Amino acid sequence: DRYTYIRATPHTGRRHQIRYHQKQLRSPLVCDVNYGDGKVNRFFRQTFNLNRMFLHAETLKLPHPVEAGRVVLECALPDELEQVLRALREYEGEVA
Question: Phi and psi (nearest 5°) for 70?
């Protein structure tokens, strides 16, 4: 109940937009050294060996550089982040 998996769709390309807004909501991204919570970051590093921010761009839509239209790039969640989610789900099952 302490962590929430969210999907965000920023409408601009402003730098740190998601990170800043999540901090303002008192729900910072895990392992975000600039906007995050040091205690939570240490827990995830020590417990799950997570040494990167828990942030992933699943889909990017960009204007095509030559033709009219858009280029859509998609990428699945990396294994290291998927492993953390699996471990958290298992832990949740043990507590319930």
Answer: -125, 155
The whole-angstrom separation of Cα 18 and Cα 35 is 10
Task: Read off φ and ψ for residue 62, nearest 5 degrees.
Answer: -130, 150
pLDDT band at 74 (very low <50, low <70, confident <90, very high): very high
Comparing CA positions, the residue from 26, 32, 77, 79 lying closest to residue 53 is 32
Question: What is the b/e burial string over 54-77, where b = at least 16 CB atoms within 10 angstroms of the residue's CB?
Answer: beeeeeeeeeeeeeeeeeeeeeee
Instruction: Indicate the pTM of the whole model.
Output: 0.81
CA-to-CA dists, residue 59 to 10, 13, 32, 34, 39, angstroms: 11, 13, 21, 24, 30
